[in-house]
Write a structure and sequence with these properties.
Layout (H helix, E strand, L loop, with lengths): L36 E9 L5 E12 L5 E11 L2 E11 L7 E11 L11 E8 L2 E5 L5 E4 L4 E3 L3 H4 L11 E7 L3 E14 L2 E2 L2 E2 L2 E7 L6 E5 L5 E6 L2 E10 L1
Parallel strand pairs: 9-10
Antiparallel strand pairs: 1-2, 1-17, 2-3, 3-4, 4-5, 5-6, 6-7, 7-8, 10-11, 11-14, 12-13, 14-15, 15-16, 16-17
Length: 245
């Protein structure tokens, strides 16, 4: 009796997921990324055997006049404790989810989950023309931002609403971690793939983000637009829960 054919090897970046590739899934049921939703991704390191190191949750709210807000909660393990980030971004409902204003707070937690003294950073930001005004200690400062911009976490919303086919390449300035200006970024169509995950075959649509100051990102969405997987260097975000709010 002939042995069963081996599944075809996974292509990049799925081949970097190792054993975590088995966690890739596309939830059942309808989904409209332009409406309110809430999603949670597990954060995984791709070094060694790979491990779950944290969690990211985004909640998309849509107001009566079409105004959009993204609430973010991020928790990631670090030596002796964890890093916690919370934020709210008020965005334009456009291709790159460009925020008009946002606020964020970051701190370190000890092994028991309590905030460590003197590690909290809290700031607010407002876009004004080609500048972003940041308020918060130690002092107010202004960032010069040429052209179109967006915040890195807002792209988790933006890619879900892009056409799932070859489309316009978007050029922009990246605001990384809410207050770091990184120039020369593009978000471009990568293609459609059908990776075999165990006994399942997924159909996913990909977009590449490259630019100064960050490792390349690859975003993969399913046929309804849900962001199933994002890979950045040796870190991956895998969808664990998605619901229409």
């Amino acid at each position: 009796m002939s042995p069963p054919d081996a599944p075809p090897p996974l292509e990049f970046p799925f081949d970097t997921l190792g054993g975590q590739a088995a966690k890739l899934r596309s939830p059942e049921g309808p989904f409209d990324p332009a409406k309110p939703w809430e999603q949670t991704w597990g954060v995984y390191t791709l070094t060694g055997r790979g491990a779950r190191t944290g969690q990211l949750t985004l909640r998309r709210r849509v107001g009566r006049r079409g105004n959009v807000a993204l609430d973010l909660s991020y928790l990631k393990a670090c030596t002796g404790g964890s890093q916690k980030v919370s934020a709210t971004l008020h965005t334009r409902d456009g291709a790159l989810a460009t925020p008009l204003r946002w606020s964020f707070e970051a701190c370190l937690l000890d092994a028991s989950g309590k905030p460590i003294a003197h590690t909290t950073i809290a700031r607010t930001a407002v876009a004004k023309g080609t500048a972003i005004v940041l308020s918060g200690p130690p002092a107010e400062r202004t960032l010069d931002v040429p052209g179109t911009f967006t915040v890195n976490w807002a792209l988790f919303d933006a890619v879900q609403r892009l056409p799932r086919e070859r489309t316009t390449t978007h050029s922009f300035t990246l605001i990384d971690h809410f207050d770091e200006v990184k120039l020369g970024h593009t978000l471009a169509w990568r293609g459609t793939v059908e990776p075999a995950i165990g006994t399942r075959t997924l159909r996913l649509h990909g977009y590449d983000q490259v630019g100064q100051g960050v490792v390349p990102w690859v975003y993969w969405v399913d046929g309804s637009g849900r962001l199933v997987c994002a890979v950045a260097g040796l870190e991956a975000y895998l969808l664990e829960a998605s619901k229409q709010a």
